[in-house]
Specification:
By secondary structure, the protein is of the alpha/beta class. 48% of the residues lie in helices and 12% in strands. It has a five-stranded parallel beta sheet, with helices on both faces.
């Protein structure tokens, strides 16, 4: 089984979908936000956008996490630029991405709603859209509408993973083998 990155801007639902997909596929979940440096977290809390240099060490750690789980995992990570995704792909060549596509308005609203419980300032949403290089046309990417119900997103992503990975048996095959 290859690993999957659930990607997109802040507020798109990476964490919620990542947990749901990991649970259904029986894979470990790694929350990319847990690996930001203290200085990057402080910067984001102050409403200052991260730059490539800020993200370099973070991406290295995430690459190591991917390599430490060759049997597969679900990673939540913004992966906003193609160069970031390519760095992750270099660490795990069979890596696939699920891009949660969302409008700036919806992302800003969602981030503002969670402001009390999260380090990310809603002031930074626009900077994420300015940095975002959508993965259209990249191999191994599924784009989904982030505003769909979580249960629908989970089903769509898991179906895509199962259909495109011969190593994971379908639920039907699992039932027949029992």
């Amino acid at each position: 089984m290859s690993s999957i990155v659930i990607m997109g801007v802040a507020g798109c639902g990476k964490s919620s979908l990542g947990v749901a997909v990991a649970q259904q596929l029986g894979l470990p979940i790694v929350e990319g936000d847990d690996f930001h440096s203290a200085s990057s977290l402080a910067k984001m809390k102050r409403g200052v956008a991260l730059n490539d240099a800020d993200r370099a060490g973070w991406l290295k750690v995430l690459c190591t996490r991917l390599q430490d789980r060759p049997s597969g995992m679900v990673l939540t990570c913004s992966a906003l630029k193609r160069t970031y995704r390519d760095q992750l792909r270099a660490a795990m060549p069979s890596l696939r991405f699920v891009f949660l596509d969302i409008s700036s308005e919806n992302a800003t609203r969602r981030v503002a709603e969670r402001a009390a419980s999260h380090f990310f300032s809603s002031k930074l949403v626009e900077s994420q859209f300015a940095t975002l290089e959508e993965p259209s046309g990249e191999e191994g990417v599924l784009s989904v509408d982030a505003t769909l119900p979580l249960v629908d997103l989970q089903a769509r992503v898991c179906d895509w993973v199962i259909q495109s990975s011969p190593i994971i048996p379908s639920n039907k095959a699992l039932q027949e083998s029992v």
